[in-house]
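Methods — Computational structure assignment.
A single polypeptide chain was analysed. Its primary sequence is given first, followed by the predicted tertiary structure written as structure tokens.
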Amino acid sequence: MDDPIEVFIVLGEAALHRGVGTPAVAREQFEHLVAMNKRPNVHVRIMPFDAGAHAAMGTSFHLLSLGASQVKRVYLEGLSGGTCLHEASDIGVYAEIFEQIWASVEDRKSATILRRRITELD
């Protein structure tokens, strides 16, 4: 693909400790995150436990920029369905929070956390 989409992901460290499937499956998933993070268009960071409170605690969201027109949306998913926010003021709130969180999480520390979890699963 000549112009691949760019993906930025922040995962809370707790997600790496939640037991879903076998340890072998978890290890494979974590190794996949490490491999994907080596791609120039994929950026994965882990919010460590010691980061403390942050503005997005207790929620998850997807901030989307679509196409050359730079259409922006926020997708929120709940137990009974999803919601797409399209108002500029709503999108601005989520974009600002994401930027704050992204800036607060170190890339090197994220890689260390992932490698440590892989080792713990051996």
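Note: The chain has a mean pLDDT of 91.
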